[in-house]
């Protein structure tokens, strides 16, 4: 690992915004708040993966992976981060280095790749991602990017986050450092208003940002830039002129918020768009900070009037589901901001949370869970699939909300499951998103397929096997065999035994 990368990692994890870190001495503070996993133990993804996830939703730039083609993966449907315009971010660009490049170096190939992208696609910028192989052979992507930028007259941004540097969360922060070092503050916006804000750590999954933007538009609040969902290069480059920063996922890009406050005096707060109460609190926080920064006081009154209308409308629509959902138990396997924000959202619908995972959550996230659920909150640090399966089979939960990796555990336990992570196809942010989330949970729980799959098998569910039935079958008469097959068909059709034809 290069000295420059080591210094950047140490700087990233200084984390002055962390309450725990603020109580440390200057020497201890540099050790950071998060213990890094050793290479090879990067659970949930590597540093390169984290950097790519954090920056790829910037929709109008080309994202070039300098490494073997396998590192590129599938960009076309990456995390369902939606764009309102450009689609170049969904095109996979890679230098696809080979054995000769490992021997002689891949810097010339990288330079040629940058030139080809600019000639064919003409994006406003190119982001170049370092990978393990090219970092190990010593390719200096910073020098290549600087030379290419001078040659072609366009910003070429190096993202030095090779996979072996650490876990995915570290890659999120290294990607954020690339924005701070090479992008933010390099362009002045065409105009500014007293109502300009940045939203940081929001990725516009399945268009969730678009459910929040109309609310801000109704208040006259302008999103100067979103990092990085549906983002544009020039908007992010001019983000230093915003009046307020909202931090959506502190686990990924908190270093942007803290350093923008230090460099440009932009205050920030951490909020959530999940749940009616949290959505309203976020609107209030934005309005309050904007007024502190010079916006007219009447913004506070307009915000409260909008909240009153939207909350009444949302609660009225949720009421139709409450009778069926009240008392239903939910097992929540997710992480980060969703570990507490989704809890509040589900409780508003009358659901009971039997447990929420905190594997990817910060100390602040865990504290908020305690505030919402009380001291007896069941926080799951690392539940194994077997424990998850036993919990569902013992009926300690009625439905599981998680990412796609856990869905088969729920299906094996013959329990409803709903995707709550980035691969989902339904937006759950804002007031509209809360109604959609409750609707999807109701549909999952009410699906008649669960009644079918839980029916006892015709050959018994008490330890008998198909083999035992097959062994006794040859000794049965033709009439008995016919009766047996009729009963099997009856169970499949949901008929009672009396309705089975003789």
Please explain how this structure is put together.
The protein has 502 residues and is of the alpha/beta class. It has four domains: 36-182, Nitrogenase molybdenum iron protein domain (Rossmann fold); 196-313, Rossmann fold; 326-423, 3-Layer(aba) Sandwich (Rossmann fold), CATH 3.40.50; 466-499, no CATH class. It contains 22 helices and 13 strands. The chain has helices at 3-12, 19-22, 26-29, 47-55, 99-104, 107-121, 132-136, 141-152, 168-182, 209-218, 233-237, 250-264, 276-292, 298-325, 338-348, 363-373, 385-393, 407-412, 430-446, 449-453, 466-472, 478-493; strands at 62-66, 93-94, 126-130, 156-159, 196-202, 222-228, 244-247, 268-270, 329-333, 352-357, 379-380, 399-402, 417-419. A five-stranded parallel sheet has the order 11-10-9-12-13. It has a four-stranded parallel sheet with strand order 2-1-3-4, sandwiched between helices. Helix 16 (363-373) links the parallel strand 10 (352-357) and strand 11 (379-380). The longest helix is centred in the middle third of the chain and has 28 residues, at 298-325. It is globular, with a radius of gyration of 27 Å. The model is unreliable at 462-476 and 497-502 (pLDDT under 50).
């Amino acid at each position: 690992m290069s000295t420059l990368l080591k210094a950047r990692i140490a700087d990233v994890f200084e984390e002055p915004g962390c309450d725990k870190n603020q109580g440390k001495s200057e020497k201890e503070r540099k050790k950071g708040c998060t213990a890094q996993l050793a290479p090879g133990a990067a659970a949930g993804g590597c540093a390169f993966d984290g950097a790519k996830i954090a920056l790829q939703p910037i929709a109008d730039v080309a994202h070039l992976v300098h490494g073997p083609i396998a590192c590129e993966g599938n960009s076309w449907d990456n995390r369902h981060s939606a764009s309102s315009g450009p689609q170049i971010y969904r095109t996979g660009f890679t230098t696809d280095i080979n054995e000769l490049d490992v021997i002689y170096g891949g810097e010339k190939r990288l330079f040629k790749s940058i030139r080809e992208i600019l000639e064919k696609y003409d994006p406003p910028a190119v982001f170049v991602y370092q990978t393990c192989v090219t970092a190990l052979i010593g390719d200096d992507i910073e020098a290549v990017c600087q030379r290419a930028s001078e040659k072609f007259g366009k910003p070429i941004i190096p993202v030095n986050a090779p996979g072996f540097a650490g876990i995915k969360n570290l890659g999120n922060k290294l990607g954020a450092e690339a924005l701070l070092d090479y992008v933010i503050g390099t362009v002045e916006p065409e105009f500014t208003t007293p109502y300009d804000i940045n939203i940081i750590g929001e990725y516009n999954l399945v268009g969730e940002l678009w459910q929040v933007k109309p609310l801000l538009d109704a208040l006259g609040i302008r999103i100067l830039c979103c990092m990085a969902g549906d983002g544009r290069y020039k908007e992010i480059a001019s983000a230093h002129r915003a009046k307020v920063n909202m931090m959506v996922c502190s686990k990924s890009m908190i270093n942007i918020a803290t350093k923008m406050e230090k460099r440009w005096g932009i205050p920030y707060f951490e909020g959530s768009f999940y749940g009616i109460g949290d959505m309203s609190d976020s609107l209030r926080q934005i309005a309050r900070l904007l007024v502190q920064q010079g916006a007219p006081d009447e913004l506070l009154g307009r915000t409260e009037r909008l909240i009153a209308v939207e909350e009444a409308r949302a609660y009225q629509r949720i009421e139709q589901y409450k009778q069926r959902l009240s008392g239903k138990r939910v097992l929540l396997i997710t992480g980060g901001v969703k570990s507490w924000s989704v809890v509040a959202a589900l409780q508003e619908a009358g659901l009971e949370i039997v447990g929420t995972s905190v594997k990817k959550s910060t100390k602040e996230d865990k504290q908020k869970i305690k505030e919402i659920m009380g001291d007896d909150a069941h926080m799951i640090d690392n539940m194994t699939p077997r424990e998850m399966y036993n919990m569902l089979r013992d009926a300690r939960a009625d439905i599981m909300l998680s990412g796609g990796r856990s869905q088969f555990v729920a299906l094996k336990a013959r329990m409803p499951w709903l995707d709550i992570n980035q691969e989902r196809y339904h937006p759950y942010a804002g007031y509209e998103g809360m109604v959609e989330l409750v609707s999807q949970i109701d549909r999952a729980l009410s699906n008649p397929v669960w009644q079918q799959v839980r029916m006892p098998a015709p050959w018994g569910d008490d330890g008998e096997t198909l083999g035992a039935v097959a062994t006794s079958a040859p000794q049965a008469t033709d009439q008995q065999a016919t009766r047996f097959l009729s009963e099997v068909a009856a169970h499949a059709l949901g008929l009672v035994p009396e309705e089975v034809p003789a």
